[in-house]
Amino acid sequence: LAPGAVLLHGFAQAEAAALLQAMEQLIAQAPLRHMQTPGGYTMSVATTSCGPLGWVSDPHGYRYAAHDPHTGQPWPAMPDCLLRFAIYAATEAGYPDFVPDSCMVNQYLPGNKLGLHQDRDERDLRAPVVSLSLGLPATFLFGGLQRTGPTQRYRLAHGDVVVWGGPSRLAFHGVLPVADGDHALVGRRRVNLTFRKVG
Ligand code: SIN
Ligand code: FE2
């Protein structure tokens, strides 16, 4: 996509059912919820996390936390198949030392979108971001280091993986509204799993 950023088409195709099953077990323990943004909005995308640190947003700001504010419990452990998958994808993309300590789940229903943003709440910006798409396809926007710069559009389908790091680590990115549809395995939604090394 850009220096340090790659799209691995269909990379998770063979493992998708197992990865989905792990994700379903996870959301049974730490339910998907709509976070509040510091600006006072409610996110249309529903989120949860697993691993030592989970992404949290509320009126005070964005941060990573060791506990799920919804349950008061530590986030569920990162399932082994998800951890191994993220390491495998990062290695394939040229980041062989990646060990994530956070996996965020984003569920998009038809019409849901994610505005252009940078992933910059992580302390360790040397590590890449590994993003796995499952279910309905979406249009991914990938730009440069300035919000107002040009963006490229890529179609992300079930099983596609995007990895961005190095000179692209702080690239602006977002997701256009997901079109309605019904995916044979995942149903009427898109699920994105994003792996990061936060600490
Ligand atoms: C994200 O930017 O955190 C998620 C991107 C995606 O859903 O593909
Ligand atoms: Fe992001």
What does this structure look like?
This protein is an alpha+beta fold. Helix content is 14%, strand content 31%. The protein is built from two helices and twelve strands; from the N terminus they run E-H-E-E-E-H-E-E-E-E-E-E-E-E. A hairpin with a 2-residue loop joins strand 3 and strand 4 (61-65). The longest helix has 14 residues, at 16-29. The two termini are 26 Å apart. Residues 117, 119, 173 line the site of fe (ii) ion.
By DSSP, the count of extended strands is 12
Amount of helix: 10-25%
Strand order of the largest sheet: 1-10-7-12-5-2
Give the termini distance in whole angstroms: 26 Å
Low-confidence stretches: none
C-alpha geometry: globular
Our Rg estimate from Cα atoms comes to: 15 Å
List keywords for this structure.
binds fe (ii) ion; alpha+beta; four-stranded antiparallel sheet; binds succinic acid; 14% helix; 199 residues; 2 helices; six-stranded antiparallel sheet
